[in-house]
Design goal:
70% helix, disordered N terminus, 195 residues, mainly alpha, Tetracycline Repressor, domain 2, 8 helices
Amino acid sequence: MMGVMSGATTRKQQTHDRILDVASRVIRRAGYNGVGLANIMKEAGLTHGGFYAHFPSRNALLVEATQRAGRDTGAVLLERMGQAQAKGMSPFSALVTTYLADDQLDNAECGCVVVALASEVPRQTDDVASAARARVMALVALVRRSLPAGAEPGHAQMAVATMVGALQLARTLPAKDGKAWLANARASLIQQYDA
């Protein structure tokens, strides 16, 4: 009997994770308002009726999807930063170069959740906004750890504002212009904070 219960829990957790995976990509692709429960469940290969077996509400899904998106992109960012550092880049240069890489222009669905959702946070419920704010603070903390020793506390906040804003605006431009914006932002941040 214990094996059957464990298997059911595992299947339920796998289904929960599948829904979260889809929702974390959809919120970055279409924003919070673009998350329709029926569409999420369909994209996950499930029926709409099964949603409430996994989440008590749409907001609960948005909170978990925001957290998942942050963890997933954070893990990729750290991995790529490590690769850049192995090639001799400083931690901050590796972070900026990775975060503002040209491939991020076409990678909204798997990109930074802060970039995708920052403008929508003030219109969300407290629990959803809190999850999004936690992602902002995690990004600030990562930048703070990456800055050279002796950097002023406000430098991390300014670097995050520049990185997020540059990527958001670069995505609104034709590819050639967006790449130029990213290149300028990378060069400016590295010169200003990593010289």
